[in-house]
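User: structure tokens for this one?
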Amino acid sequence: MGLKELDDILNGGLPIPSALLIIGDVGTGKSVLCQQFIYTQAKEGFRCTYFCIDHSPFDVRTNMKSMGWDTSEFEEKGLIKFVDLFIGREEPSEEKYQGNPRDFDELVSTIRRYFIQNQRFVVDSISSIAFFHGESKAYDLIQRIHGWILKTKGIGIVNAVRGMHSQAFEIAIQHALGNAIVLEREGEEVYLWVAKTTRTSHKKGRFGLEINEMGVRILF
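Assistant:
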């Protein structure tokens, strides 16, 4: 995945193609992990798409730049596309790539269009889609996303907020995507552990996680 410590935990990384669910408590670094993944994959020459649902592309770019990940050159080269599906937007934005997140059919069509074109993907997050459109439709979209990842022979990450859904939905999306990482907070500490992998093994146990000016750091 381009993140050395996480690749070590996954015993070399995820096989291609793969879908990965990152599910965690609020404020544990889920989005930062997704942004770091996209940036490192673009540096390696992969065409990447970041579906901005919880936050606008402006906010995502600004956060990435604060971590030292300036995406402008990669966007110019077509290696990173930010697709504006910000659920809080009521009108079209100035973004080159966008869709209407409040129209579920258009949302699905927009995600599919940019999935088929690229190799690495982040959906951040499925939680807002489930909250706005319902868990049944969100689960249907998860299944489609998994299928598109297999078709493109890529790697995709879906981000979800733990505790924002029914327990059945959280179990279902872990099962559907095949690979799942959990981020959880205990007091001031954040821990990462692998709940499930498919077609690969992984290290057992919980690992400390911290975020600094270089991004996510996993502590062994």
